[in-house]
Amino acid sequence: MTIAWQLLSVLAFFALTLGTAFFVAAEFSLAALEKSGIDTRAESGDARDRAVQSAHRKLSLQLSACQVGITITTLITGYLAEPLIAKLLEPLMEAVGLPESTAIVISLGLALVIASYLSMVIGELVPKNMAITNPTATSRFVALPLLGFSKVFGFLIRAMDNSANAIVRKLGVKPGDEHAARSSSELEALVRNSAREGALDNDTAVILERSLSFGELSAEDIMTPRSTVVTLGSDDSISDLVRTAVDSGFSRFPVTAQGLDETIGMVHVKQALAHPVDEHESIPLSSIVRPVHRVPDSLDGDSVLTRIRSEGAQMLLVIDEYGGVAGLVTLEDVVEEIVGEVVDEYDDASEGRPIYRRGAWWESTGLARLDEVSRETGYHAPNGPYETLAGLVIFALGRMPEAGDVVDLPSDQSTISDELDAGHFQVWQARVTKMDGRRIDQLTIGPNVAASTPAAANENEEGQR
User: Fold this and answer.
1) N or C: which end of the chain has fewer CB within 10 A?
2) What is the pTM of this model?
3) Which CATH class is domain 353-464?
């Protein structure tokens, strides 16, 4: 092997490794791009931006082209590099006194390791990291050459792509472009990233994220639970309706015969206006009730909203698997799942927020769902037989709670690992501050909440100011 041939082989090796790097960078940069940004840049950009748009529109084909390119360059690199490096290492092996046969074997082994290492680092890891870090600039650099490669080797790329699609269909999966559609979880991640980068303001991001996750909720998640529903009896009069509306601040009420499970309909306080005041005491609610619609507690959020709109109803009864009434859903409940708590002129603003910060801790209603708790406080509860913060506290206590009870809250294992790695693991606690009969009405939660006496909380709050 002449020196000129060895030099030429070395140059070819590095050229092919750079070729592998090109296809790896193309693959990762195109896959990391967002379609909306591509279209915007293509409208006002140059030929490179339009090439990126063209490549991204046929993303599946272009990714196949990248795979073909990576395979071709890697195979040729291995064919050239291993014998070349082995040949260069043989004199060194012989110089240390190894027999010729042993020197050849060791040289080939070392050549394989060296060639693989260089190909992996220079040809794959470096371009991958560059493409992920700056996909826009990388895709602008690679788009035009990649389109040219796809045109030249189109027959080979399509043949291999069609073969792969045929196998995928046999497995019962329909092939599709990776960016043809996005799941709700992907869109939620996109919204969070956009808010983190400043492309969306926080309020808009929260509404978008709530809207995307709304369909994953069930009627049971959205409903006002049975224990807090205010009802009227079928024998009650219109005067009772008016008094209850004034006392509770609500305008619609289920009308029951013998308990909520035997609801005969609903009434609205506006119906009192249709009757003379002097007749209010004598008119029973059973004579003016309107029909109330029922939905199963497993119905998803989107379907609940559809039922409310299609039925023209402002209230739905939620039925559990045993046929009993688990609670009710109003249009306000649905709206609040998307935009947050809505407080009108008849509501107590301090009670409008289920969770709010107070010094170093948070005050919460017992009915706050655990996903709301996580979003507001950063505490992540493990999965278990509970949906609300009150249910979690009862589960942790192992008995019926009493005002003043303090309990350590269990933490999700993945959260514990992350906090330990970060060096700031804290035990979360809850204090029951108010009971409503057998139901937990109000709690204080946070790290070391045992110290959350009113005086301590006020001092902490003043200190933060």
Assistant:
1) C
2) 0.52
3) alpha beta
